């Protein structure tokens, strides 16, 4: 069991929307992924990351289009932004709350927890047979999206685009191992 989990994590690769099809994760899948996400190391248990499954995708397409136009995009650019909210079978927002005045946990530690939780969330879904990719960019700042998802002090850290790998999606990637990334001081 452990060997096969390790092997699958080692061989994982991100797949963007063009390589994704249905089925998307179910509510049960998301609930299980959350248990992995919250298992991430979290100094003082601040829970700096939460996850919002975007069910009303058309609304987010409107938000993305309006956001791109507000950023100065032309109609073509706005339509491109719009399509980003619709392309993948599923879309999850990672919302982060970073306490800049916490005396014990500096902001970089809180961001590390957001990253670890996000990575765990995606990895859990990948192990369940789904695929996806973390993306960010201007859309994380679009006014309507932020207003819809964030409470005071929160930001949209990134999106996780999700689905199932299409048959022609690139396969598992064996990563290069660089000697300098793991050394022993002895
Ligand atoms: C917070 C975060 C934001 C990212 N934003 C983007 C993005 O906007 N566009 C993109 O192509 N990749 C983005 N990436 C990188 C991809 O998610 C992915 O990790 C990268 O393509 C490498 O693929 P791999 O995960 O298979 O190694 C982001 C990664 C992280 C952690």
Output the keywords.
binds flavin mononucleotide, 6 helices, five-stranded antiparallel sheet, alpha+beta, 17% strand, 186 residues, oxidoreductase activity
Using DSSP, what is the number of strands?
5
Assign the structural class, choosing from mainly alpha, mainly beta, alpha/beta, alpha+beta, or little secondary structure. alpha+beta
Q: Can you summarize the main beta sheet?
A: 5 strands, antiparallel
Going by CATH, the architecture of the domain at 12-55 and 88-167 would be 3-Layer(aba) Sandwich
- Low-confidence region ranges: none
CATH topology description of the domain at 12-55 and 88-167:
NADH Oxidase
Shape category: globular
Number of helices: 6
CATH superfamily descriptor of the domain at 12-55 and 88-167: NADH Oxidase
Q: Radius of gyration, rounded?
A: 18 Å
Instruction: Using the coordinates above, name the CATH class of the domain at 12-55 and 88-167.
Output: Alpha Beta
N-to-C series of helices and strands: HEHEHHEHEHE
Instruction: Tell me the distance between the termini.
Output: 33 Å
> What small ligands are held by the chains?
flavin mononucleotide
Pfam families: Nitroreductase
Binding site for FMN: 12-14, 43
Cofactor: FMN
EC number: 1.-.-.-
